[in-house]
Amino acid sequence: MSLDFHKQIQNLPPTILTIFGATGDLSADYLMPALLHMDKHRLLPEDFKLVCVGRRPFNHAQYLDYIIKKSGVIKKLSSAQKKSFLRHLIYFEGDFADAGKFQVLARQLADHEAAKGHRCYNRLFYFATKPQQFAAITHILKSSGLLMACAEHKRQTRVLVEKPFGFNLKSARALNKLFLKYFLEEQIYRIDHYVGKETVQNLMVMRFANSLFEPLWNNRFIDHVEISVLEKDGVGGRAAFYDQAGALKDFLQNHILQMLALIAMDEPYNLTAAMIRDEKLRVLLALEPFTAEKLSSRLIKGQYRGYTKDVKGESKTETYFALKTYVNLPRWAGVPFYLRTGKALNKKLTQISIHFREPVRCLFMGCAANVLTFQIQPDEAVHLQINNKLPGLGVRLHQGDLEFGYKAAFKGEIPGAYERLLLDFMEGDQRLFIRSDEIEAAWQFVDSIAENAQFKKLPLNIYTKGSNGPKAAADWIAKDAKEWWTR
Ligand code: BG6
After folding, report:
1. What's the chain's Rg over C-alpha atoms?
2. Taking the domains of the chain in order of start, what are their residue ranges?
3. Of 86, 102, 234, 476, which one is least surrounded by beta carbons within 10 A?
4. Domain 195-419+435-478: which topology?
5. Ligand 1: which residue has its CA nearest to atom 10?
């Protein structure tokens, strides 16, 4: 079966997308590759301008060459592709310290609209800079006139804000306050690219479009849930940023808690952004906060050997954690959620496994619990482990795997998360973006760990690069008579 590109046929309104931080790593490795791909597949609005703002002195073509060279993802671009993309591209040299300069950009954009017979554009702004620059940029947007999209054509302005959205609850609240001073919640798109991954979106479909799962989706039938995000790479060129954040803030607050919310939420009344976000919020608010005592027994942290070389100095920052938490809602009472992530491990693998209870009484020797695994990446798939009779004259059990692999089932390239999210941003669809209260609820939970004095006192387990992570994490889960599940 081929993939569904329904968005392709939708008519996107004339759009100007301005990216702040256009010369950074995020732009080179994620945004530009996504936009180039969208251009190639004719997924961009017919009337589209892309304004890339950076401090370096480039012309449009030089900027594109710079990005191609810098990007670890863009392999090669044919001259036809380059030419096609350059039709959209405006590189604008601007320093956020010089707010006045952006009036020039505002005039340029107004001139562009005038030249098109005063055709109005949606004005979209992407904050792909360091969070410390967000305040300056919002000020620039307001003072330069860039926010003025023409109302008589019902054109809109929207902003998309990259993670990290704050470093703790306090700073996240301050950021929300800042953005909500200039924009309405409906104009603010807080991104979490994991939510845009194909297989993460499939979680809601699997749960709510199959009558099979929902009756079993509770503490009567589920023993525990595991979410593992294993990464092969170390911190690479992001050492300075990562050392400030660590695995908890880099991964738990956003990607892992978003996946957890989608696994644990109730069925929303409908598929509007408001309803989906309300249900996710209920889960995030119900996460059991950590206390000093719980931290000692329910959390393991680690750091890969050689990390201090990467960050060029002493550091106690965790590059790995494994923790156990609970969702204090009736559906999940007593069901542990084991969450873990780590850098510099032996493989890249993101998966969520739902471990059902073993049959109350097993007539046969060797019944194992059913396990439903959502493999998010790299090989997108859904697996269900079942007990099956081993063919032969005796009655012995064998654990078989019902597998639904995307590679075998679907032909074609699965759209990347950034492509989907950029399209949603252009269409004004907020369903895959995070609301202010969700962000704050997630930080509240993470703060109960990261801002707890006990967290610093926990032993930092050093693990070998390319290993499974610290042995302490395996020993710790074994105490609950479990082992980490990887298929
Ligand atoms: C980012 C984190 O949000 O996601 C990185 O800051 C991490 O540390 C990255 O490596 C992983 O994304 P993906 O899509 O490659 O799994």
Report:
1. 24
2. 15-162, 195-419+435-478
3. 86
4. Dihydrodipicolinate Reductase; domain 2 (3.30.360)
5. 231
